[in-house]
Amino acid sequence: MGLSLERIRGGWRNVPENLKTKTMLSQLGLKPGNEAVAEVWAGKQWCKLYDVSDAVEKRKLTDKQKTAASESLEKARAKLVDDRTCSHCLNERTKKEIRQQADGKKICTYCIEYLHEEEVREQRIRRGLSAFRRRFETDFVILDTESTDLDGEIVEIGVIDRFGKTLLHSLVKPVMPVPDDSPATLIHGIRNSDLENAPTWAELREEVLRILQGKLVLAFNAEFDGKMVSNSCRRNKVPLISGLEWDCVMEAYRLRCGSDRWISLANASGRHTSHRAVDDCVSTLHVIKEQWVEMGLADIALQSS
Ligand SMILES: [Zn+2]
Questions:
Q1: Between 84 and 172, where is the model more confident?
Q2: 65-79, 107-121, 134-148, 197-211: which range is least confident on average?
Q3: Which residue of 25, 121, 128, 183 could cross-link 258, Cys pair, CB 3.0 to 4.6 Å?
Q4: What is the Å distance from ligand 1's center to 124 Cα?
């Protein structure tokens, strides 16, 4: 066959416009439709030439090729999606929202924030648990007071030990009584007529001091009870009770819940709270014991009750 080919001498400039090589046809999206009609010397070898008027369009891709092509496209796309997919929430994010971590994982900014909050929460819980654990090893008493108002003075005080034994319970005659329909009175229900014969704080102070001294004083919302003790000392013009170590069970409890919100004694203890001093002490002890049970200190905790 080759022998019948016309050999064009003198190089490319002598090749007519209608004759093309395979490569040239391919660049036009064509392929030879017939045998080569001529060849030209291309420096190293004879190069076959085809008539462009016989050429046909390059064949369409086969199904297999189409699949392969789309698969490789898919892969490229998947890689892009993968680079923007958070390994924590599996959401596809924008490039800006994705941070590569030291371990190579890609995590979105939302999850980073969430994980940070979770970490803070877990730290709180650990702190709360360790507070309850410390209580277990400490000689503590639980104190609760009822008062004339939120910034008032004590009308009832209760102190119990870790076994729930009442160490002190007394109504307290206030220096500045409030009306029987005042908000605090409506909560605890201790009326002025109940307080007429009660000792004053000045009379009780020594006994309170004796019971609390050297003990860790726990209270649910210790800040409040501490303030009431100080207020009562001031109004009665007796020395403040200083040097006591107070600790707040509400604070420990809300840490343990991973929360920093105010929690009522009723919610924390799961008990109906009467808002009477000794009963609220018992509820507070209940909160502590429940944590002991959860921490596996149950046997010892329950022995003592
Ligand atoms: Zn995420």
A1: 172
A2: 65-79
A3: 121
A4: 23
Q: DSSP per residue over the chain, as a string?
A: -GGGSEEEPS-GGGS-TTEE-HHHHHHTTEE-SS---EEEE-SSSEEEEEETTT-EEPPPPPHHHHHHHHHHHHHHHHHHHHHTB-TTT--B--GGGEEE-TTS-EEEHHHHHHHHHHHHHHHHHHHHHHHHHHHHHS-EEEEEEEESSTTS-EEEEEEEETTS-EEEEEE-B-SS---TTSHHHHHH---HHHHTTSPBHHHHHHHHHHHHTTSEEEETTHHHHHHHHHHHHHHTT-----S-EEEEHHHHHHHHTT--S---HHHHH-S-----HHHHHHHHHHHHHHHHHHTT-HHHHHHT-
User: pLDDT value at position 301?
Assistant: 47
Ligand 1 center to 65 CA (angstroms): 37
Q: Which of 31-45, 71-85, 207-221, 235-249 comes out lowest in average pLDDT? A: 71-85
Domain boundaries, the chain: 2-57, 63-117, 138-303
Tell me how far the alpha carbon of residue 113 lies from the centroid of ligand 1, in angstroms: 9
Res 304 pLDDT > 70:
no
